[in-house]
Structure formats: structure tokens, C-alpha cells
Design goal:
Number of helices: 2
Helix content: under 10%
Structural class: mainly beta
Shape: globular
Radius of gyration: 28 Å
Strand content: 35-45%
Strand order of the largest sheet: 1-2-7-6-3
Largest sheet: 5 strands, antiparallel
Distance between the termini: 60 Å
Oligomer: single chain
Mean pLDDT: 78
Length: 643
Amino acid sequence: MRMGPFYLVFLFAICFASTGGAQPAPLPGNVNVMQTDNSSGLPSGVTMTATYIEPGVNRLTLHFEASPTAPLVTNKLVDVYAGNSLNAIYRISVSVVAASPFPCSVPSLLPIDQSTQAVLLSNLTPGCSVEVWAGDSSGLAPVGVSLPGASVSRVPLPRRLDPGTVVRVLQASGTVTTTFTDPLIVENNYVTNRYDNERSGWNLNETTLTVDRARGLAKICEHMVDGPIRAQPLFVQDVDIPGKGKHNLVFIATDADSVWAFDADSCVPNDKGLWVDTAGNPSPRNLADSASGERAVTAADLTSAWPAGSDPGCAIMLGITATPAIDRTTNTLYVLGLLIKNNRLIYRLHALDITTGHDQPGSPVEISDATVQFRGLSFNAALQGARPGLLLDKSVAYIGFGSHCEIGNYHGWVLAYDANIPGSPGFLGQFGVFNTSPAGADGAGVWQSGLGLAADGDGTIYLITGNGNFDPDTGSYADTVLNLRLPTNPTAREMEVVNFFQPADYSTRTTTVDLGSGGAVLLSRPDPGPITAPIVPKRFILAAGQSGFSYLINRDCINCNGNPEVVWRPRAELATPMTLIWLSRVSWNLEVFTEGPRTIQGRWERAYITPAPFFLYKLSHCSGCRQSSRITAESRPIARLRR
């Protein structure tokens, strides 16, 4: 039982008897105050809130609140009925006594969405524990606890919360707690490439864009921007813009190094967005500081920086090409821009406040030969192209680099930076560096047709490299699915290889067929429960590239570098990354929608929403079969969505 002081009075309750007895069952997790012959209910000015029955352990948690004007009471008997697994009436003694000073403050809970891995709290009292509770109208359950050492801190969640979940937080000292924070609802935002870090592209909580409505898609608005758009648009709901109130925002990043913040619910001619410049005029945020002589990169800049004889057709305006990533808890958009500074090309990682477009404290950081090295190699911004979407995982920002049309002595790079709390010591500090071809040979770029680096929340990131040299003994990983982690040595910078996989036939290929033309998509199949036959692995990497083959790989394979278990390798007529994935928790099926330019056995039509048809692969677990459980594959077209 939990007890708590509030304002001027202190509430004390003791559970001393259980009378049992059948009562109408309350909603799951709820507890009802019952008035019986022994009690007339709670004392005046006292309420009982946010109660919870913990399944399986028969433990009842009660939170009481007393108003500042509640009269003092001694040993007031109250019967509390607890349904569900307890199914009993508990008689408690409630006392309201004068409050003594309480050392813990009521925390402030910052916004949360479906991507949040750790809630962010402010106004904390160091030394007081923090409890995070989550649930719905039927009750709340504890989902996180921490003992912060600072007034601003994070509490990790055991899993990401579904949109619509109610979250409340309190602080405690022993058995005495503060009041709960006001309820906060988990939002449903598009804050990263393909919706989630698994890169599934599937929003299970979508209610507006249904299949029926998708058949009638039509343009309702357009906005002119200042350059080509290669990054995916992002969306955040209810962003509080200074002086303008809350708006649903769409963020657009361009090759002119600009980030635009448009109101998603309005269509104003010649709209410049909701952010303003230093003069107070609506304006996008440009990452290049023109006052310091910085500017966006032009085709001429690239031509002059590349080796003689390079393909001039590849020299185009390049600025922000990688999809940014947003941390809703800090209202921070992480974005990478290529620009000219002091007559040389550099990349710069910015952390922008999504309410204003201004840099957060500690932002930006430069990414160039002066700041990035690996085993004697220096990063060359003129030769490295940033195509994969940025990844935010466990408060770390990851960035991948490939080439510009395979020009010059390029490499594949993966960089990691602190993305925890803006303004904190070490914010945007470099955590890790990895080079995919450090042994003198070039290649093995990380480009993935723009698909973001993937992660499943355990600290491992997943990526696929392009063509080049493959020699794991020297650290070269071309045409490889790579699983990386941050260095275990805190003083080191070199990221560590957890596992890798290269298709067996790639070493004998005589033509360039990038495995890394697509990115890794992470799939998980729920455990169907005890069965007599062995079951297939539950966590997979889905990889596909230009060869036309797809690979479903067991990502939990231990100590199997280069030869993990490939569960499935169908001939899939596709040349671009997986775009939509759906996981059915009821039937334990995985349905994979892919995009490809060709037909299979003449059965596919081109009457679809893109120039190429979509294909669906259904991976079914045979839980009722006598033979060993297996995964099978079938192919069929999905709905014909015309332009």
C-alpha cells in the first residue's frame, strides 16, 4: 500500500484485515471504495486515485490524496473492494494528520510518442525515486522506476508505449509519494525514416489513411521550397510554437540546406512555415550561416573537389539528403547538412528545436577530416554521400555514409553522437566511428537507397554495405549485412562488429550487384506459446539488394560471423528496399510488401500507385503441423492502387 502527504495534511492508511466476499468485478486494474456497515467511505477531502492490482502476486497499490482543507482524522475505517485476482474486501484504517515538510517535488513529464524509449523528466529532486505509470481508462501499471541524480533525467521504459496510452509520474521517498503528474497521452508521430527504427514503414495505429481512402488519394495542397527534396517528410502533433499555440507540423528538408516547418492542417499560398527568422518574418531554417560566408553546395563545388575525369552528371546540388530524426521528449530534430565553409566541403550535424528552428545548446558539430578518423584514415566530405536516414536509438544519433556515384577513394562510414539531453555535458560528443573498408581498398559504402540504419532497442544497429572488397580479417565488409555496437571501452571510438553476413555467391560474382542498395528491415514474430516441435527464430533481419534475392536472417545467432542462419531466401523480383511490413499478432504471420520493376510469371500488372508493382510475401508459422515448425512463402498481388 502506498501513502502520501499532500499540501497541508498527511494521510496515513493501514490495511489490517480482509473480509473476502463476492462483489461486482470492477474494470481490470481498478479498485473501488465500498461503503459498508463498518464505514461511510473515505474521510472528507480524501480521494483514492491511480490504483492498481498487480497480477500474479496479489499485491494491491493504493494512492491517496488529501486536499489542503481536509480535516484531521484518526483511524477512520474504510472498506476497499479489490476485484480480479484479489477478489476481496480490504479494511483499512485511514488517518489524516498534519503534514511535515516533504523532500520530494512533483516532477514535470515531457512529451512522449510511440518511438520514446526513455521518458524525460524535469523538476526532479535528487535522492527521491521516480515512478512511471502507464495504462488506460481501466487502470495504470508501473512501467519504470529510477533514482535520478540530477533535476533533469530519463527513466528507461521496458518497451515503447502505444499511441493513446496514458502516462503519469510521481516521486517517492520511502513509502511516501508526491501527487501524480497530470495525465500525458502518448502521441503518434512520424519522427524517423519509415516510421520506426525497425524500418517497417507500417503504422499500426493509422485510422485516417485507410485502404478505401488510399484509392482516392488526391493533392490537397502544395508548398514551394528552395531546393530538391530527397529526405522523407516528418510529422509531429501538437507542437507548441512560441506565440502561435499548438500546431501539427510537417518538416521538410531540402538540398539547399533548409528545414521547413509547415502547419499540416492549413494551406496558405506562398507559405514560409511557422518558424521565423531574426527579424520575425516567417522563414525556413537554413543550416549555412551566410553571415559567416557559409553557403549551400553547388554542382561546380563538387566538380572542382572531385578527381579529374569524374562523371559531371553526378555533380548536382546536395545539402540535406538524409532523412532527419526527431526526439519528441526534447523537441529536437537532428539533421545533417553538407555545406561550404571556408571554401571547403564539410558536413555538420545540427540539433534543432522543433518549436523555433534554432539550434539547441551544444549544437552544431562539424563532421570533416579534422573531426573523424579511423585507423589512420580521415573522413573526406567531398567524396562521402549521406543517404541513409539518421537513426536515434538509446539517446545516440547514428549517421551512415556512402559515395557520390562511386567517385574517388570513398569508404563506408558509420558515426555515433550523444543525443541525450541538449545542453548537457558531452551533448553531440562523438561516441563511435566505424569504417567498412579501412585496409587501403575503397568501397563498401552505406547508402541503402535512403533507408535509415535500423535498430531494435538493445544497443545493436543494423546496416547493409555496397560493392567493394570483402575481407573480414582486415576489417573490409563489402556487400555485407553488418550488426554493430558502440565500443565497450569508454575511451575507445571504434565501433564493434557483433555479427555479419554476406551471401555465399557474392565472392564469385563478376558484375557489380549491390546488396546494400536496400537497407535492413527488422522483423519480430511473437512467441505462439509452448509447442512440441521446435520453432523457428523469432527475430529476423530482412535484407535484399540488386541481385533479386531476399534473405531472412536470424538476428539472434550467436558467434556465427559470416554464416548466420538464413531462414528464407526466395527469388524476389525486386531491386529496391522493402517498403511496407505488417505483423499480425493474431495469426503469427509476417506479410512483407516489396516494390520491384519486373513481373513474375506474367501474373503481375503495372496498374499500381508507383511505376512498379508491389509484391507481398507471407511467412507463415506452421504451429499445428506434425513436422517441425517451418516458415513458408507465397506471393500474390495486393490491391491495385492507381495514380
